[in-house]
Amino acid sequence: MSVSDNLPAADRDGPPFIVRAARRLRPGEGWLVYLLALGVVLTLPYAAVNSALAPGLQPTIWLSFLGLSFSWWLAYRPRLSGVLAALVIALSGVAATLAWGVQVLRVGPLVGQAARWLAWRAGGAPSPAPAVTYFRDQWDALVGFGQRVVWWLDGLLRGPGAPDNLVVIGLAGLLTWCFAAWAGWWIARRGQPFVALLPTGIVLAQLAFWADETRWSLITFLGATAMLLVMSRLSWLMRRWDRAGTDYSPEIRLDMVLIGLAIAAVTMTLAPVLPFVASDEFSQAFWRVFESPYKEVETRVSASFEAVQPVRSLIPAFGVAEGGLPRAHLLGGSPELGREVALRVRTRGADPGQSLYWRGQTFAHYTGRGWDGG
Fold first, then answer.
1. Which residue from 233, 234, 208, 209 is spatially nearest to 221, judged by alpha carbons?
2. Contact 53, 211 (CB under 8 A)
3. pLDDT above 90: percentage of residues in the chain
4. Among 89, 85, 56, which residue's Cα sits nearest to residue 171?
5. CA 49, CA 52: separation in Å to the nearest integer?
6. Partner of 347 at 20 to 30 A CA spacing, among 15, 47, 200, 323?
């Protein structure tokens, strides 16, 4: 009788299957770095869904998870170059968006028709073979969606806009896939989380500007990114030490986790309360040049999106276009008065001698950036 015969069954069989699978699938950076990266990239689709700017954006959450995991897996293929990986990720993103985002690419009907045909083939019955129409139907669905994309792009580029929410969902799904895949590749292959999360942070900041409900997603993004920077750097150093045979204490991981949590807590605490500092002179000079072209682009783009709720314009309230009416509605704004006649108004039905006042626009609610007509 061997020693192993006296051991319990659990010890003889080794660790449970879940533990063995987790060890086998464990990323080289560790599960903590992967989960932090996943949490950071998911803040963008979650904010998009929570903002309610457009309906039907829930698939972007699933596509973001798949994009990060797929690119992370590709990053561990040393023979795969960056250009080839980008091509594979892009084609996979299009297929995933068509399948799970807009559900134009359907696998279920193919399986059903194939099963019916195989059952007919195995049965050997004299009845006629069941019709296989999947490929024709699938091609028609793809062509139809492609035509909708062409119409939407034509309205966006030439105007007037042709809003199509299904195309918007597809565009949002493909973008979230690309941002997540970019993050996974740069963290797992290059070890540079700042570059990896920069596109996500830029789009998330713009989304937080449009919809106030998403500001907590931006704060969570900043805190998780701060901790990810710490833990990703530690993971890179530990792998370097392991390759060089350098001895180090395993307790350093716990110390760095505590330090990362402290930095993340400070970041999330200070982010909402720090004042926004900007140069009014530089901003006004910038918008004097770019306000007119940006307005044209903004008008054309807004006509192609069916937003559930109106979004705030990126142009600040103090922007003044040359030759336009005053827009200085901030506290302390100086009046822009002149003696030249701006317009003449004729009214009907007014009594002789009655005093009339021209009301243009009222501003009753201060948002912290300027006044609106709430």
1. 208
2. yes
3. 18
4. 56
5. 6
6. 323
| CA 320-321-324 angle, 5° bins | 95
Token couple for 226? 């701060």
Phi, psi (rounded to 5 degrees) for 252? -65, -30
The Cα diameter of the chain in Å comes to 119
Structure token pair of residue 297: 């682009």
Instruction: Give the other-Cβ count within 10 Å of 36's Cβ.
Output: 24
Sequence-ordered list of residues with C-beta below 8 angstroms from that of 280, at least 6 positions apart, any chain: 318
pTM of the predicted model, to two decimals? Answer: 0.71
Answer for the pair 97, 177: CB distance below 8 angstroms, yes or no. Answer: yes
Question: Which residue, among 89, 299, 274, has the nearest Cα to 188 in the 3D structure?
Answer: 89
Contact 89, 70 (CB under 8 A): yes
Q: What is the mean pLDDT of residues 90-108?
A: 90
Angle of helix 82-96 relative to helix 165-185, nearest 10 degrees, comes to: 150
Distance in angstroms (rounded) separating the CA atoms of residues 210 and 309: 10
Helices in 124-214 by DSSP H: which ranges?
Answer: 134-158, 165-185, 193-210
pLDDT of residue 296: 73
CB 364 within 8 A of CB 373: yes
Confidence of residue 2 (pLDDT cuts 50, 70, 90): very low
Taking only the tens place, the pLDDT of each residue in 50-85 is 887 778 889 999 999 999 999 999 988 888 888 899
Q: Which long-range contacts (CB under 8 A, 24 or more apart) does 22-31 make?
A: 27/72, 27/188, 28/76, 28/188, 28/235, 28/239, 29/187, 29/188, 29/232, 29/235, 29/236, 30/231, 30/235
Q: Which residues contact residue 355 at a Cβ distance below 8 angstroms, ignoring those fewer than 6 apart?
A: none
